[in-house]
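Morning run. Coffee first, then this:
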Amino acid sequence: MPILSFLRHAALAIVLVLAGCGENPQQRPAGGPPPPQVTVAKPAKRVVIDQDEYVGRFVAIDSVEIRARVSGYLDRVHFTDGQIVKQGDLLFTIDKRPFQAALDQAKANLAQAKANLAFAETDLVRGAQLVKDRTITEQTFDQRTQAKRVGEASVAAQEAAVRQATLDLEFTELRAPVDGRIGDRRISPGNLISGGTTSGSTSLLATIVSVDPIRFEFTFDEASYLRYERLSRTGRDMTSRDSSVVADLKLIDEPDFRNQGRMDFVDNVIDRSSGTIRGRAVFSNPDGVFTPGMFGRVRVPGSPSYMALLVPDAAIGTEQTRKYVLTVDADNTVRIKYVTMGQLFDDLRSIKAGLNEDDRVIVNGLMRARPNQKVTPQEQGAEPKPPGSPQAQN
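And here it is:
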């Protein structure tokens, strides 16, 4: 009966399997995986100052348009486009010949007026004796006195004409009024340029902008301005206008705030359209890298100094809109703590609320830690313990 023999063997196999499934778990080898190891550290304590960052642009302290005060033909250009110029450097020369001729004529008219005055004075001296001797009438003497006064007035007028002609001759040489970098020339030699005292009717020849030092202008909102002002009234001047507040700056291609300047101005009016107020800092620019119109990011103090708790920024987790850190309690159980974050200082994040200075924060092994589970904590910087050590078995 092969079929009956097969059925008996099958029934025996089923009984053996059921017997194995009913084995007592307590008879299994003891042990199992130990709690995961994590690295913990207490929050660092450091005196810090919150910093506020704003975007702005550079503005030249001095920006001058070079325009002629007299009209004439442009004779020469004495600079190269874009070069650095010093105050007093010769930039343009206007044809001097007409102005030299006008000066010579004014000097001749002055000499003639002086000669007429000298004759009138001599005639008046003679008339004073003649009128005493009754040789001439008093009317004639008064006429000679009047002639002397007219001569004096004529001399004064001609002296003013000479001074004006001298100024016009000096104005044919246009010199740099400030130190800075000059732009390109707008008019080439040989062209007739218009001069005068009204900018709308005069010819623009070039522009000069100062380079060192240079200003950086930015705007901040009304709430920040109120916070700064209230801090200032408590003796912590955050909107200083006397260059006592340090401002740090970085350009768009720089990794950190490596340039240091000083706050020197905060406007007195809040812009009604934007609700912001203008601030300004001054930076040295010896190598001329900072250029008017260039964008940058400035950082200014936003709070007085205070003692802060700092944890590594990588130790902070996110749960929807809340931030948290994982801590280990006295029983080596992971606990979650929701915190209020502050600013980042290097790689450390300040914690405003939710954390105590004695808390052991998990800084490494976050992926192995779960809230309400046991872990094997290892102090940061300490030698790791082997799995069989007493600390690892706690």
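DSSP finds five helices and 23 strands in the chain. Good start to the day.
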